[in-house]
TrEMBL record:
Lineage: Eukaryota, Sar, Alveolata, Dinophyceae, Suessiales
PROSITE patterns, per database record: PPR
Name of protein: Pentatricopeptide repeat-containing protein, chloroplastic
Start and stop residues of the PPR repeats: 212-246, 247-281, 318-352, 388-422, 423-457, 566-600
Superkingdom of source: Eukaryota
Keyword set, alphabetical order: Repeat
Length: 624
C-alpha cells in the first residue's frame, strides 16, 4: 500500500522504474480498497514492471482479484503486454483475461511495435500458447483465422505451428516493414521452413518492404540448413546485386551452407573471398569450412586450416573448430590425429567438451582401437565430463568391431550405473559383439532385455541376433526370431535383405533346403530385392541337399534382379551338378563363367573335375 499522503500513481511509476513489481501490485490493490481507479499510465507502468521483474522469471503470485476495473487499453499498454509476453512465458498465465478481453471501443491504430513484439513471442517459442486474443485483435484489427486455435478467450498456438502464427500476423498488418519480415523469417528458421521463408521473401516487394542484409543473411542460413546450398549461394550473390554490403554473417552463412552439403571447395573459396574483402574472419566461418572439408573426406585440408590457416588469420580456434577437425579425422579413419587434437585442445586453452571427446572415441571405433576408446571413456571424469549415451555407444561399437563381447557387455552394464541409459544403438552393438563371438544365447538374451527396459529393437538388433544363430547352426531359433520380427506391428521395423539372407544361410547350414527356399520366395513376395548374398545362400542350400535343378533355376534368374553371378553362386551350382555326376552341365557352367568374365578358381575346377570322375564311374557301372 502506498504511504499515506503519497500519490498512488506516482508510487507505481517510481516502483516501475526500479523494477519493484510487488510494490506496484500492492499499490494497485490499495487503490481498489480506496475505490480509486488507476489511470492507463499507472496500469501500463505496472505491466512493464511485471515484465522486467521477478514476475518474468516465473513467479505466479499475481493476484487476479486486483483487476476489476473497466480500463480501456491503448496502444502503449498493449505494446507493454505483448513485450512482456515476449520476455516471459509465465506471467500471462495468471494475468486476468477479463482485463485484456474487454471490448475495445476506442481502438488505437495498429502499431508496428505491437506486431513485432507479438511475432517475437512466437519466434521465441511457447509464449503464444496463452496470448490474449483481445491483444491480438487490438493490434491487428480482427481475430486471426483458425477458430480451432481459439479457446476461452485465448489464442492457443501449438509450438509446432508458431511459424504459421508469424505468417498470419504478418498478413494482417498493412505496411509491415522489413523488421517485421525479418522477425517472421526468424520464426520460419526455428521451424526449419526454408520454403516458407522464400515465399515470404518473394512477397516483400508487394508489401513495399525492401530487404536488408539481415533479410538475406537469414535466407542464406535457412536454405543452408535445408541442404539447399545452391539456393543459398544464389541468395548470397543477390546481396551485392541489391546494392547491399555483405558482412561477416553473410559469408559465415554461405560457408555453413556449403559445409552441410560437403561442398568444401566452395567453402574454402568463400573463406578466401572473405579475407580479400577485408572482412573480419572469425571462428564461425573457419569452423564451418573445416566441417565442409571433413564431410568431403579432405581431412588434410581440415587440419591445415585449423593449424595454419586460422593462426594466419589471427583467429584462435575454439571448441567447435577442434571438434570439426576431430570429426574430419575420424571420418577418414585417422584416429591418431583425432586423439592428438584432443590433447592439443588443452594446450590451446580450450577445454575438451562432450562433442569433441565423443568424436575422438568414435574415431577410435572406426579405427578398431578399442583400448584407446576405453581409455578416453575412462578419462572423461578427469576432464569434468560425464559420459553420456553417445560416449558409451561409441566405446561399445569399438569393442564390437574386434569381437570383444565381454567388454561390450560390461560397458552396457556400466551405462545404467552411470545413468547413461542404453538405447537401440547400445543394444544392437552389444548383440553384434556377441554374434562375432559366437554367443548366440547371450545375443538372444539382450534382444529380449530390450523390451524389458522399453527400448524398441531395430532391424540391426534382429539381424545381429539372427546372424548369431546362423553362425552357431541354430536354424530353428533363427526362423523363430525372424517370425517375431515379422509379427511386430511397428511400421519402421521390417525385415530387410540382411534379415532374410542370414535366415536362409542358417537353414542352409541345417540342410533345410525347403525352408530356405520358402524364406527366399517369401522375401520376393515381401518385395525385398535379394542380393548376391541372398542368392548365394539359397543356391548353397540347394547344393547341400542335391537340388541341382533349383540351383540352376536360381542362377538363371539372377540377371532379372540386375545381379551378375559371381564365384560363390557359380561354384555352388557347379558343386550341385558335381554331387549327382552331371559333368556336362558342370563344364557348361565353367564356360559360362568365362563368358561372363568370372575367372574360375580352384574350387570351380575341382568341382568340375570331380563331376567328370563321378560321371566316368557311372558309365563304368553302367557297362558292368
Amino acid at each position: 500500500m502506498a504511504p499515506r499522503g503519497e500519490d498512488p500513481a506516482q508510487v507505481i511509476r517510481s516502483c516501475a522504474k526500479t523494477r519493484h513489481w510487488q510494490a506496484c501490485i500492492q499499490t494497485l490493490a490499495s487503490m481498489l480498497v480506496l475505490h480509486l481507479v488507476p489511470s492507463i499510465y499507472s496500469f501500463t507502468a505496472a505491466v512493464t514492471a511485471c515484465s522486467t521483474g521477478c514476475m518474468g522469471r516465473g513467479d505466479t503470485s499475481f493476484p487476479p482479484r486486483c483487476w476489476p476495473w473497466g480500463i480501456l487499453p491503448d496502444t502503449v499498454s498493449y505494446n507493454a503486454v505483448l513485450s512482456a509476453a515476449e520476455h516471459s512465458k509465465q506471467w500471462l498465465i495468471v494475468f486476468p483475461a477479463a482485463v485484456l478481453d474487454a471490448d475495445i471501443r476506442n481502438r488505437s491504430r495498429a502499431h508496428e511495435i505491437s506486431f513485432t513484439a507479438a511475432i517475437g513471442i512466437s519466434d521465441k517459442g511457447g509464449g503464444w500458447q496463452l496470448a490474449p486474443a483481445a491483444a491480438v485483435r487490438h493490434a491487428f484489427g480482427q481475430s486471426l483465422p483458425g477458430s480451432d486455435e481459439l479457446d476461452c478467450g485465448h489464442w492457443r498456438l501449438r509450438a509446432a505451428r508458431q511459424w504459421q502464427a508469424a505468417i498470419h500476423l504478418l498478413a494482417k498488418v498493412p505496411g509491415a516493414d522489413v523488421l517485421s519480415f525479418n522477425v517472421a523469417l526468424g520464426a520460419c528458421r526455428d521451424a526449419l521452413r526454408w520454403e516458407v521463408a522464400l515465399a515470404l521473401f518473394s512477397n516483400m516487394p508487394e508489401a513495399r518492404a525492401t530487404p536488408d542484409v539481415v533479410t538475406f543473411n537469414a535466407l542464406v542460413s535457412q536454405c543452408g540448413e535445408g541442404l539447399e546450398w545452391e539456393k543459398a549461394l544464389c541468395l548470397f550473390s543477390q546481396i551485392s546485386k541489391s546494392s547491399l554490403q555483405r558482412d561477416t554473417v553473410s559469408y559465415n552463412a554461405a560457408i555453413s551452407s556449403c559445409g552441410a552439403a560437403s561442398q568444401w571447395q566452395v567453402a574454402l573459396a568463400l573463406l578466401s573471398q572473405m579475407a580479400a574483402a577485408k572482412l573480419p574472419v572469425d571462428e564461425v566461418g573457419c569452423s564451418s569450412a573445416i566441417s565442409a572439408c571433413g564431410r568431403g573426406q579432405e581431412w588434410q585440408k581440415a587440419l591445415h586450416l585449423l593449424r595454419e590457416g586460422m593462426p594466419a588469420a589471427h583467429v584462435r580456434p575454439n571448441a567447435v573448430s577442434f571438434n570439426a577437425a576431430i570429426n574430419a579425422c575420424g571420418s577418414a579413419g585417422r584416429w591418431e590425429d583425432a586423439v592428438q587434437l584432443l590433447r592439443l585442445m588443452a594446450g590451446a586453452a580450450c577445454a575438451p567438451d562432450m562433442v569433441g571427446v565423443n568424436a575422438a572415441i568414435s574415431a577410435c571405433e572406426k579405427g578398431r582401437q578399442w583400448q584407446v576408446a576405453l581409455a578416453l571413456l575412462s578419462a572423461m571424469p578427469s576432464m569434468r565430463l560425464i559420459p553420456d549415451t553417445v560416449s558409451f555407444n561409441a566405446a561399445i561399437s569399438a569393442c564390437e568391431k574386434v569381437g570383444r563381447w565381454p567388454v561390450a557387455l560390461g560397458l552396457l552394464v556400466a551405462m545404467t550405473e552411470a545413468r547413461a541409459w542404453p538405447d537401440e544403438i547400445s543394444f544392437s552393438s552389444a548383440i553384434s559383439a556377441c554374434e562375432k563371438g559366437f554367443q548366440w544365447q547371450l545375443a538372444l538374451r539382450l534382444l529380449s532385455d530390450m523390451a524389458r527396459v522399453a527400448v524398441q529393437p531395430n532391424a540391426i538388433s534382429f539381424n545381429a541376433a539372427i546372424s548369431a544363430c546362423e553362425k552357431c547352426w541354430e536354424w530353428e531359433t533363427a526362423i523363430r526370431v525372424l517370425t517375431e520380427m515379422c509379427d511386430m506391428s511397428s511400421s519402421a521395423l521390417v525385415p530387410d535383405r540382411v534379415t532374410f539372407s542370414s535366415t536362409i544361410s542358417a537353414c542352409q547350414k541345417g540342410l533345410e533346403w525347403q525352408r530356405a527356399m520358402c524364406i527366399f520366395w517369401g522375401m520376393l513376395e515381401e518385395e525385398v530385392v535379394p542380393n548376391d548374398v541372398s542368392f548365394g545362400a539359397a543356391i548353397s542350400a540347394c547344393e547341400a541337399s542335391l537340388q541341382w535343378q533349383l540351383a540352376l533355376q536360381l542362377l538363371s534368374i539372377m540377371p532379372e534382379f540386375r545381379l551378375a553371378p559371381n564365384h560363390i553362386t557359380f561354384n555352388a551350382t557347379i558343386s550341385a551338378c558335381e554331387k549327382v555326376g552331371l559333368w556336362e552341365l558342370a563344364f557348361q557352367l565353367l564356360r559360362d563363367m568365362q563368358t561372363m568374365q568370372v575367372t574360375p578358381d580352384e574350387i570351380s575346377f575341382s568341382s568340375a573335375i570331380s563331376a567328370c570322375e563321378k560321371g566316368e564311374s557311372s558309365l563304368r557301372n553302367g557297362r558292368l
